[in-house]
Structure formats: C-alpha cells, structure tokens
Amino acid sequence: MSDYVLFQMWGPFRQSLIAGHLFYVEQARKRLLSQFEDIEVEADKATEDWLQRSSGRFDPDRHDPGDFYEAANDAGIEFYTLLSEMRDQTRLSVVAGMFHEWDKQLRDWLVREIQHWHRGDAAALKVWSADFAQIAELLESIGWPIGGADHFQMLDACRLVVNVYKHGKGKSLEDLKQKYPKYLDDPFCGAAFSSVEYRDHTHLRVSEEQFQAFSDAIVTFWQAVPENIFESKVNDVPDWFGKAILKDRTGHKQASKQ
After folding, report:
1. Residue 2: left if φ>0, alpha if ψ -120 to 50, beta else—which one?
2. Residue of 4, 10, 3 lying closest to 227 (CA atoms)
3. Each residue of 18-41: pLDDT tens digit?
4. What is the DSSP secondary structure assignment for residue 191, as one 8-state letter?
5. How far apart are CA 80 and CA 78, in angstroms?
6. Whole-number Å distance between alpha carbons of 240 and 243
7. pTM for the model
8. Is 242 among the domain residues?
9. Domain range for residue 16?
C-alpha cells in the first residue's frame, strides 16, 4: 500500500534557501557590519579632531592644557560609545531581517505543500497567523521531532531577541530573561546588584559569535527538513490546524450543495 507524501523538500529548493540565507549574511557583513571594524581608530581620530577644532580657543594664559586634553578625551569616548551603540543596533537589525525571512520562508513552504492535498484558505491563513510555538507543534505532529534539537532552541532564542529588539518591554523580554539571559548585557560584570531581573531591553546585545550561531541554526534547520514527510507519520494534528482543515472542508461541502 502506497504512503502519500504530505510535505516534500525538493533538493534544489533546499539549496536555494540555504544559498539565499548565506548571501544575506555575507552581504550584511560586507556592506553594513564591516563599517564598524575600526571604531577604536575612529574614536582616536575624533579626539584629534576635537583638539584641532578647539585649538583656536586655547589661551595659555587662561587655560590649563590638561583641561583641553581631558575634554578631547571625553569627546573621543562619547564618539566611541555612540558608534558602538550604532554597531549593536545594526547587528540586531540584521538578525531581525534574517529571522523574519526564515520565518516567512518556512510558512510559505508549509502552505504551498498543504495546498497540494488540501483546498481552502482557512488552513493557509492559520499557518500564516500561528505563533512560533504553534508552528513547532505542527511540525512535531507531522512526524518531525524538532523540539529538542539544539538548532531549534537557538532559533527560539533568536525569536525572543528579535521580539525584544522590536517591542522593548513585554512578555518576550521576560521570557528572554528566564530562558536566554546571556543576550542581555551585564553592565556591572557579575556584581551583586547586576542580577538579570534588573536588566531590560536597553541591555539587549548580540555579539558577532552569537550572530554566527543564529545564522548556523538557520542553515542547520533547512538541512534537517526531511526530504519527504509521509501521511503515515502524522499524529494528531494541533487543534487549531485541525479546526482550520475542517472549516475548509465544511465550506466546500456547503458550496457543492448549492
């Protein structure tokens, strides 16, 4: 007896998804993040520029040279701080774009595969509106055990980071504190009063290594998608998906009677 294929990941399509993702990461590094590679040198130049701009105001009879050099140093520190913050925000925006593209591609693939064996808009709309946990639940129900996979946990962390970056305070921030606090920078380096409970969205940071880990997780995810997911592997689908399927089928029956 033949076993019907419900979801199929065509090899060339899998490779195109991975290639597109790697291109995004490579170009983001080349065109955006590379601009922040020498911020220490740029901060030193900002210090020198301040001295040059202010030299005309220096009066040796009235001014202490030390005060001018201290002010120039402060200007360099301020420049470095602002540029560091811009670098961190740029990296977060790249991570957000990377995650959202993966999320859309996954849902689009699921919907297109569903439409091979099911007619109706309700199921498709539910897949597009389902949250991350519901999508994971659906994947588990069709015989793809992803919940405990390291790369999927990394994608869950990425999701929370992106939500905190986008929305600030809220449930995702609290979840990030509980599950993945390493993405909330500790400004006091482990002091007694630096508990994660006192950190908020302003402490959100993603290092270059963490950015790479998120990228690797997306690649691993696409590599891990089964080539064929058979009907026989499907357990009880999530209630939200089952109701959407039933709604479509009911609508088709009613339409056929008219």
Report:
1. beta
2. 10
3. 999 999 999 999 999 999 999 999
4. -
5. 5
6. 5
7. 0.91
8. no
9. 5-34+92-114+145-225
